[in-house]
Amino acid sequence: MIFEDLPTTPTSEELIDKAFSRAARAGKAKRGLEAQQSMLQTAANIISDNLENVVTAWPDFEYDAHPFYYELADAIVDVDKLRQSLSEVMWASRKAREIHEEYQPRLRKTDVDTARKHRKQAFARLADIVEQIDDHLLYINESRNDLRDLPEINPDEPTIVVAGYPNVGKSSFVNDVTSARGETASYPFTTKGIGLGHFEHEHLRYQLVDTPGLLDRPPAERNEIESQAVSAIEHLADCMLVMIDPSGECGYPLESQLELRDSIVAQFDSVPVLTVANKIDRREVWDEDLLDELDADYTMSVETGEDVETVLEAAIEAVDYEPELPFEE
Ligand SMILES: Nc1nc2c(ncn2[C@@H]2O[C@H](COP(=O)(O)OP(=O)(O)O)[C@@H](O)[C@H]2O)c(=O)[nH]1
Ligand SMILES: [Mg+2]
What sequence ranges are listed for the domain NOG1 N-terminal helical (predicted)? Predict the structure, then answer.
């Protein structure tokens, strides 16, 4: 995941301390004018290089981030504000070099006292520049901490997303058809873990994703971050399975479950959505007219295994994934 390896961003205080203490050490190794020159060069370089590294450590959101991650990142941090902060830091990095270039000539062909006075002045200006971007450095580090924990999901793998109210059997389904049990990922904005599983079909790896807290309740109950995370999922899902429990044993009336299904169909208009009624083994508690009303594409029972394969194959067909061949033009 592209935001995983971002280094911590120093605070302005840390950076100033580091630059000036290294400069003091460099100064002690030399005498006279050379000591002053070496101090300035060391301090300016450390500030300039460290600030530049803060900026270059970040991927380009538009070119390097998959739209799924871009949108998810934007739900969690303010990407425009982050970009602005990064550009201010770049400005400060360049400014530090300029100060170095401006003061360097003043530390030559002069007496040591005058040189020391100029060097101190340069240091004050360097410190001032770094202090000016204090808030930006803090925001960058905060963003880094928030984005580091984005879920480990591969957006390039063909993906089936499972939606539906709690207790309808989503986790049971994901665990049943995938090899890795209990694989989870987490979003930084909720404590609920994403259920994640993989299976292979005709040598292709598919990803099954269950998104508790997002696609398990009506849109009106989602906060702003959750709503945006749901739209990020539009870039991820190649097929949507909306699971319904017509027995009502999940604790949610069928009517609410169908409303959720309809809202998902409406929102994911570019993604094939299949309605799957689970717990068919409990058909004795299903209402007689229910099946008509449901308009389900499939019925199944994860408990007994009835028609689970059929549903999976339908999902694979709906994904309609064609791998890119390396030699294709
Ligand atoms: N009778 C019956 N129970 C099921 C079936 N699938 C899942 N369950 C049960 O329904 C409950 C909720 O399942 P779970 O997978 O945790 O639902 P989730 O909240 O949607 O992930 C569990 O007790 C499951 O054992 C099924 O096909 N038939
Ligand atoms: Mg679950």
Answer: 3-153
Residue count (the chain): 329
Common-topology check for domains 12-147 and 159-319: no
pLDDT tens digits along 10-33: 999 999 999 999 999 999 999 999
Coil, strand or helix: which one is 181?
coil
What are the extents of the domains in the chain?
A: 12-147, 159-319
Q: Whose CA is nearest to atom 12 of ligand 1?
A: 167
* 86, 143 contact by CB (below 8 A): no
CATH number attached to the domain at 159-319: 3.40.50.300
Nearest alpha carbon to residue 264 among 191, 194, 170, 161: 161
Listed in sequence order, the residues at least 6 apart from 9 whose beta carbon sits closer than 8 Å to its beta carbon are 54, 137, 138, 140, 141, 144
Q: Please, what CATH class does the domain formed by 12-147 belong to? A: mainly alpha
- Cα-to-centroid distance, 57 and ligand 1 (Å): 44
pLDDT in tens, 139-157: 999 999 999 888 888 999 9
